[in-house]
Each structure stands twice: as C-alpha cells, then as structure tokens.
Design goal:
Layout lengths: L1 H17 L2 H7 E8 L12 E2 L1 H15 E14 L2 E12 L5 E13 L2 E9 L1 H9 L2 H4 L1
Parallel strand pairs: 1-6
Antiparallel strand pairs: 1-2, 3-4, 4-5, 5-6
C-alpha cells in the first residue's frame, strides 16, 4: 500500500507540472484538508477544504502570480497512508521579479487512491521577502 500511495503523490506532482487542472482536482478527495505552512503567503485560507478551495485559494493564485513556478520532489517516503515528500520550490514572482529557490517538505494523507490531507512546510521568510521586497533590496 505505501508504494501505491507514493505513486498517487508522484502522479499529483506530474499533473501539477503539466498544468493538468482536471487531473489534479480528480486526485483529491472531495473533503481534502489542505494546509499551507503557518505564515506562508497562501495560508490565509487554512485549512482549505475540498478541491475547489485548493484550486481557488492556492493553485490559481500561484498560477497567476508566478512565472515558471515548480514544486520538484526529490525524495518520497511512504508508511501506511502517509507519504512524505522532500524537494524544492522554484519560480519568479511576477510583481517583484524576484526568484524563489526554497526547500519544502509535504506530508500527504492518502486513502483509497485519493489525497485526503496535505500539510506544507517551507521557508516562509524567503517567500515573504521575494513577494514584498524589490529586486535591488534582495541584492
């Protein structure tokens, strides 16, 4: 079962990378609980309940505010219904022209082939600086 759950999460990342919104939405349980890291720029709606809330509150905002944004998983570990992914976010914030290159850890809960829970951990200070400071202030 852990390997099946890892494959479910890998498929989600692949869907996100190709911008396949219907696939991504379909990978989520109708009652998914999605939590962005505390103090993260998109944590204002925590917890996001349901795929539409995740799309509107997180994914659409990322798509509209960033160029070349990616969440590249480098390692995944599965145990029971839990999959932990470690990787990096990269992209350029359109409003400031600043780039982010931040590590992340994602903790997924998977049940019956659907993602039912998500918790993000990342460098929230780096994101805050990228979106609020001018490029010259970041050096």
């Amino acid at each position: 079962m852990p390997q099946d759950n890892i494959e479910t999460v890998k498929a989600l990342y692949a869907g996100l990378a190709r911008g396949d919104v219907p696939f991504v939405m379909g990978a989520m349980d109708p009652q998914i609980e999605w939590r962005e890291a505390e103090n993260f720029i998109y944590a204002d709606g925590n917890p996001y309940i349901g795929p539409q809330a995740v799309l509107d509150g997180v994914l659409a905002r990322i798509g509209g505010e960033w160029d070349g944004f990616s969440a590249a998983a480098e390692e995944m570990i599965g145990s029971g219904n839990t999959v932990i992914s470690r990787g990096r976010y990269r992209g350029t914030y359109k409003a400031t022209g600043n780039r982010v290159d931040a590590q992340f850890v994602h903790v997924f809960q998977v049940k019956n082939g659907k993602i039912v829970g998500f918790q993000q951990y990342t460098d929230t200070a780096q994101f805050r600086d990228v979106v609020t400071r001018s490029a010259s202030a970041l050096g």
